[in-house]
């Protein structure tokens, strides 16, 4: 078997990528990664130097690991804000580091991708060892495999990587007939508050629509992108994705990209950009040109829940953070990322930190679960 580091997702043929067993995850796709790299969002200029690790046998792609050499941590959600100063204090360089993850996308998904029909146990260990060797050769301080699925988590832990817990808030479809059936399980006061939020938007006269990527033209994308861009500007952050990304990725992903849009007459005034696969809806970006109570919750959460129930999706992951999601029926779940640290002394320090942090994260997950809006059984 031969390992090759590719400088761009588009260096890997679409026909090869299509045979990888990553389900139809929209983020671990050539369409998403290739477009992000092409338009600059996932490029070296933004601190994402692609070194995608591909495993071949006689020109047959057996496995793939998304891999980026990074000179900062903006946009990878690794939660390593204080690590660079710690390295510096020890007389070491923290950057560059190697990251297996999706630019600006804290969504658990496939990382160790193996060709369908091939035994994962014969390929995944080689991908892991290839990443460790790449980290050594490139002089990286660490390799971070971020937001991994459960199957990958077990393999990475078995290979000796340090597993770090995070907490997100996800919604689960328990065979609800419709939205009313979902909120019927809430306590009376929580249900009343949620319905009041929805009623404010309903009575505003706005028209709400769900549009897929292949149903949005360039003009509408420009309006949506202005709203997305303005949200980042309002909080002093950088909007990583240019409008060209959404125009191209929307066409390529088609039904795997969903935007919930509020129209005033024919004018789009607010939007929530999401992605989906066969089982899950993923919330990503929100923006608005108007100030209306309840509109954010309607487009970012309630429309998504309605969509999941109607489409038969099993879960809704609306993004990182946000304790306000708890009162709206999103449940705390653990996420996992894996870390390999090159320097033995820093490895011991990070291991100690993560072990202490894990206890606090478990307490946080339990505490937030106690505030869910559902009635107690019995």
Summed up:
The protein is α+β, with helices and mostly antiparallel strands. 36% of the residues lie in helices and 24% in strands.
Structure description:
The chain is of the alpha+beta class and 378 residues long. It folds into 2 domains: 202 residues, Aminopeptidase, CATH 3.40.630; 140 residues, Aminopeptidase, CATH 3.40.630. 36% of the residues lie in helices and 24% in strands. The strands form 2 sheets. An 11-stranded mixed sheet has the order 2-5-6-8-15-9-14-13-12-11-10, sandwiched between helices. A 4-stranded antiparallel sheet has the order 1-3-4-7, covered by helices on one side. Helix 7 crosses helix 10. The termini are far apart. The mean pLDDT is 95.
- In the CATH hierarchy, the architecture of the largest domain is 3-Layer(aba) Sandwich
Largest sheet, described in full? 11 strands, mixed
CATH superfamily of the largest domain, called what? Gcn5-related N-acetyltransferase (GNAT)
User: What is the domain total for the residues?
Assistant: 2
What is the strand arrangement across the widest sheet? 2-5-6-8-15-9-14-13-12-11-10
Distance between the termini: 58 Å
Rounded Rg: 21 Å
Q: Please state the overall shape, judged from the principal axes of the Cα atoms.
A: globular
Mean pLDDT: 95
Give the topology string: H per helix, E per strand. Answer: EHHEEEEHEEHEHEHHEHHEEEHEEH
User: Which structural class is indicated by helix and strand composition?
Assistant: alpha+beta
Strand percent estimate? 15-25%
Q: Identify the CATH class of the largest domain.
A: Alpha Beta
Q: Enumerate how many helices there are, as a single number.
A: 11
Q: In CATH terms, what is the fold-level topology of the largest domain?
A: Aminopeptidase
* Helical coverage, percent range: 25-40%
